[in-house]
Amino acid sequence: MNLLVGQIGHLSVILAFAAALVAAYSYFQASRGRALGEEDTSWLRIARVAFFVHGAAVLSVIVCLFNIIHAHRYEYYYAWSHSSNHLPVQYMISCFWEGQEGSFLLWIFWHVVLGFFIMRFNRKWEAPVMAVFSGVQLFLVSMILGVVLGGVKIGSSPFTLLRDFLVDLPVFKLNPNFVPKDGTGLNALLQNYWMVIHPPTLFLGFALTLVPFAFAIAGLWKRELTAWVKPALPWTLIGGGVLGVGVVMGAYWAYETLNFGGYWNWDPVENAVYIPWLVLVASLHGMVLWQKRRTGLRTAFALVIATFILILYATFLTRSGVLGSASVHSFTDLGLSGQLFIYLGAFAVLAIVLLVWRWKEIPISEKELTAYNPELWVFVGATVLCLGAFQVLFTTSIPVYNSFMGLLGIKTNIALPADQIAHYSKLQLWMGVGVTLLSGVAQIMWWQRNDKTTLVNSLAAPTMLALLGTALVVLLVRYNKLTITPAYVALTLAGLFGVLANFGTIFTLLRRGVRLSGGAVAHLGIALMLLGILASSGYSNIISRNVSGLLYSREFTEDLNRDNVLLWRNETTPMHGYQLTYTGQFLEVPGVPGYVDKQQLFRTDDEYKAVARAPIASEGKTYYKTGDTLEILPENTYYRVAYKNEKSGEEFVLYPRAQVNEEMGGLLASPAVKKFWGHDIYSHISSVLDPRKEKTWSEAKEHVLSVGDTIFLNDYFAVFRAIEPAHETAGLNMQKGDLALQADMLVSGERRQYHAHPVFVVRNRLVGRVPDEVEDLGVRLSLNSIDPVAGKFTFAVSTSQKDYVILKAMEKPFINLLWSGTLLMALGFGLSVWQRGGKGVLTTDATPAPEASAEAGNRAIRPQPVS
Amino acid sequence: MKKTHIFVLAIIAVAAAIVFSTTADASVYVGFGEARQRAAEGNVTKVHVVGKLPRDAQKRPMGLEYDPLTDPNYFAFTLVDTNRVAQRVIYNNPKPQDFDASEQVVITGSMKGQIFMADNILLKCPSKYVKKDLKGATASVN
């Protein structure tokens, strides 16, 4: 029992909290009543020291918490509930942020890192911006403070001892120093490489939204109503890229790991990140409009502030327990809802009051925008994004309305739409149409002088090509006997137009410098993503339909979605263009590539260990010999399903898995995906014979046989070939003087023959029997007795339910467009940051360049695009 | 009227349309009694029903019908809602794993004749949230 590390950790949390308080107050004092850049140096010095202390304390908290997990200190609740002895080191990192406290810590950590960047590179803005930063840190650290003040519990400490958490457990009354031998383990769903990098990416994205917010607040406070945009813009760009990539990473994880049949389920927790991302991207457009064209400053202010408030709202939604059970991301409700609500309320009120107070002073553009101004279309695009965000927000908040009305004493019973996917899709689709069309138009117009002729010239080509392409797509869809709704046609048209227009823009810009093309590349990526989503989700095709011609007679004769097929082990089933064969259960063995057949493993009492019953080889290399003990990963059972394309004859194998996962309610299926150039084949198990339950065997039937006799076992033909000294004695622990004999029974299955070797052991005149099982065939044999005189052998034969799986499989056309579009989008954001990199983030802002006027000058002299 | 005003009006119109469409799509939590009433009135919108499984003395759920060997896409069970109204439910999908252990079941769907056709099942399992059970703790104390 190590109490010290927890005490150091808890003390560090308190220190971090106190230091954040000092830093916030000192930065505030340093800047109060003074103009930007003329801070009170003595307060500033105190503030810096305080923030450094805060940073060091946060690091210390992280080190302590990681030590608790890494050293398996199960006296702490956090380690006990999130880790276990068998957890590989890389997943210890994921258990760090599996719990609420750890994920808050991750978020706090990123704020510290970003704070240091601001202190180093944005000296002029340091005091007011860092005052906001420290204030936010104060609230965040309070969430993990874990102290009781005046009977009120503030925050939940990750250093709580198990005995303080499970107070009522009798064991602690007997022995307060009791430490469990093992933890309960990391949710096996999260034992996935994406869960190592997805949360840090997402929280970095969350943290990055604080930077423009802090600059905007500083700008409002210091009456620097225009100058804040320039230093904040690169951070918004990075934030947009990181958060966007983080969201798609989460989607990819869900696609690979969960079994709802796709990558996006409109789960409230997914929406909680998607909403602020949309508004963040809209705010980015507002900021660019101001920075480049001196318009839209009020929009930029409002949206930057809205983004941060939405991040806080998302935090409130996902962590306060208000969503209840409507989510796959089940954060434990730690009773922090009051604290979270205060956090949300404090910053929302502060920011909105400040904005309203200064609203009239924020400069607006004198010129009236016309349809020939690209600014207008960028502005409309940002509005469309905000409306899209509003739509998701309004529906996602339905559980909040119920809770709120409940607080007022009114009982309401509104529920989320019964078919959420249809609800969101039908509305978000139009946002997609608007965004891609506008992005194409605005990108073309942004880089050229616009009048009727140039506009018609430059828009004609992409419009004509997009129309042609759409016509072709509609024909192809019809040709494949599928239907296409008018909404899908619109999205195809918009998507193609977006791709072509942005592609054209990139082409034109290449001559003027690759760096400038960041926006066009990102927009091209978005257009491709939308096309990918349309194809893969709109035309996701279930191929596991029952094609046996057998109709089940039930109450309903109407055409129902019978989306699952039953596959018997080793029997081939035809299915919508494929021949499927389920051939057995496999396990993962660390060190051996691929999967190992369960029939080759003799399980031991230790569920993580097994004995090899046959040489374990892969691609010609033998990893374990018969009788070797090896480590296995028992949580996941992989079901080997062989696919054969009836048309092309192409064959491949998928291993969908079922996972024993007590936390998520027992047995959980994860899909296996086969990637092709133009589509994915995605399949998962819908139901299996529970691998945790012992098989039920029929009552044993005795057969008396002589060598050479044949019998029928569970409808299979079998020959009793010989009796011989036992050689498979791996699990028997044979000693000198023991006698072991085995029968050799050759059973003919559907595909191959099996040797069954029931063993008969005599040790100290006591008889032991080791039955043998042919798992493929559901047969168990035991050699019950030997009559050496008559040469007769008595066998007991029992049979069991033959193994099967119920499988659902679907085809996802052109899903690669979504992933490659995401990469392009990230590249576009990267290019844009690079373009500004020299001017923003990584320089001290000593020489404020008159960027806008220089830009205007450039526009006047630069050559016109050809078409 | 300035262009800005038209633009603002357009935004308000779209926002109103979104609110309206959400209200139209939003479902409700009801009991089976009301679900039957709705069906009788010809209202086919899908509803949410919260309920529990009836259990026998050994805490085993009663009335589950799932035989994958005959039809893997047919699962029937009886659910008792919060007003203690029992109703036969059919779900044309495989039986969710660990359905038997669930404490609470939320289904969405609508009545068709005497049967509630569910198209979605949400389970709340006892172990899903806070870990409160220490396995083997009492056994290892000496």
From TrEMBL, chain B:
Residue ranges crossing the lipid bilayer per the database entry: none
Keywords annotated in UniProt: Cytochrome c-type biogenesis, Heme, Iron, Membrane, Metal-binding, Signal
Any matching Pfam family: CcmE
Chief location: membrane
Domain of life from the UniProt record: Bacteria
Location in or out of the cell: Membrane
Signal sequence extent: 1-26
UniProt protein name: Cytochrome c maturation protein CcmE
